Amino acid sequence: MSSIRASVIVVGAGMAGLSAAQHLFNAGFTDVQILEASDRLGGRVHTYDIGDHNGRSALIELGANFIHGTHGNAVYSLATEHNLLSPFVLLDRMGGCVYTEDGRRIDQSLTDRVWKIFHEVEKELEDIVSENTDPSADVGRYMEDRLQERLGQFAPDQQSDIRALLNCMLNYLSLYSAEDLEKVSLKYIGCYREIDGKNVILPKGFRSIIDVIAQDLPPNTLRFNTKVEKISYLNTKTVTVSCQTPSGKRTFEANHAIVTCSLGVLKSCHSDMFEPPLPTKKVKSIDAIGYGTLNKIFPKWKEPFWQRGEGRMQFAWKTRNTASRTSQWYKSLFGFIEILNNDSTLCGWIHGKAAEHLETLTDQEVMTQCVTLIRQFRGDPKIPAPTEILRSAWQTNEFTRGSYSFLSQMSSPEDIACLGEPLYVEEAPVVLFAGEATHPHFFSTTHGARESGIREAERLENFYQKQLRP
Fold first, then answer.
1. From edge to edge, which strands make up the β-sheet containing 67-68?
2. Residue 346 host element (H or E)
3. Which long-range contacts (CB under 8 A, 24 or more apart) does 322-331 make?
4. Is the distance from CB of 29 to CB of 1 less than 8 angstroms?
5. CA-CA distances (angstroms) from residue 386 to 17, 344, 349?
6. Distances in Å between the alpha carbon of 158 and those of 130, 143, 369?
7. How far is Cα 345 from Cα 44, in angstroms, rounded to an integer?
8. What is the spatial distance between Cα 212 and Cα 210, in angstroms, rounded to a whole number?
9. Residue 99: in which H helix or E strand, if any?
10. What is the mean pLDDT of the chain?
11. Which residues of 249-285 are buried (b: 16+ CB within 10 A; e: fewer)?
């Protein structure tokens, strides 16, 4: 393999940045530096060790939780190649029992029937014809209307439970966009493509994927605690990247920069980060694409109050939380699931405005509310309080400013393409963009992030191959 002497700076050591750097080195680039603002690898992949479980680490996933699909998934392929899926564990967020706010478990046969209808209606979203759809239409209203039509077949005495199940399922669907459904575009909902296969858990944590990518990188490639403040792309010879490091200001120069910071960071920092400013069209796309927040809550007990396999619970409220997502943030909580290799900790999922509000509360406030909910929905006031609580805070994290992207009513597939378009100087791709928000079909996913990083690395590889041709 011939060496390519062009220098490349990769901004960010998340899935996209590490994948880009890995591909560049494999393609023969010898001078690649990764600048990471935080003190760790992974970005929005963040596996956290909270103790011991039968001699093994008890892990929680503050960020990416599982591999979405198995057939043609770049992350699944990597995990399989490196034997990271033993034992093979599937995650079904929809499994388990559904409880009402009056402490009653909804009949399982009714729950199963309603879930089946919900999935059938959800499947219809893939067939939405964008040309025939109002740009202002949202996924929340569509799902409400279609489900009401389908659920009218049930008996009158079942309607209260069906309404509660519907509210639970809409909270579930919101997890896909990390945003309240009325903000998600119906017109372009079909742009996102599901990969066939189940959701797969990484037994050693999602960081095991990050680690196998990073092990391919040469020594001294990574620079941690190096916060990029300015990217200047004034000529074809160099991109100048100005950073803040623990030892003070530092400037790096390269022929190209691949920017993989989150859409949330671009939304909040692009005007100060780029010199000259980004093209107006790209700025409009950054502003238009939606970017949601999904947070997780991990209450931990000294001893579990549940038997293994019986701790999963979903919350079915009688009324949908649409007007008070801050004061009643807990109504956006889908429920709790059990965690692999962690018998005394549960994981709760919450999205959108409520997830953002969660970050303003104290641990004690969150812990008190969570145990109140669990006691209420399980109908057991004797359930003990957790001994501690851990939680993510992606919106206030200055290096993420949220969780992942979605197409809002203000955006279109053209905005995703525009966001991923490089900045050229004299036909050279000088500043390139990768990350889940730049993938046309797999936005919001780790496999989308990985594919986008490889895409931009290949763009540079192809650029230099053309230069070398006689």
1. 67-68, 199-201, 89-91
2. strand 342-351
3. 322/182, 325/180, 325/352, 325/353, 325/354, 325/357, 326/353, 326/354, 326/357, 329/354, 329/355, 329/357, 329/358, 329/361, 330/354, 330/369, 330/370, 330/373
4. no
5. 38, 9, 17
6. 35, 19, 29
7. 21
8. 6
9. strand 97-100
10. 94
11. eeebebbbbbbbbbbbbbbeebeebbeeebeeebbeb
| CA–CA separation, 328 and 171 (whole Å) | 14
Please identify which residue in the block is written with the tokens 């079904």: 92
C-alpha to C-alpha distance for 104 and 225, rounded to whole angstroms: 50
**What ranges make up the beta strands (E) of 197-325?**
199-201, 222-223, 227-232, 239-245, 248-254, 256-259, 274-275, 290-292, 294-300, 313-316
pLDDT tens digits, one per residue of 224-263: 999 999 999 987 789 999 999 999 999 999 999 999 999 9
The residue type found at 129 is: V
Per residue in 97-147, pLDDT tens? 999 999 999 999 999 999 999 999 999 998 898 998 999 999 999 999 999
- pLDDT score of 6: 87
Concatenate the DSSP letters of all residues of 448-462 into one string: HHHHHHHHHHHHHHH
Q: How far apart are CA 341 and CA 338, in angstroms?
A: 9
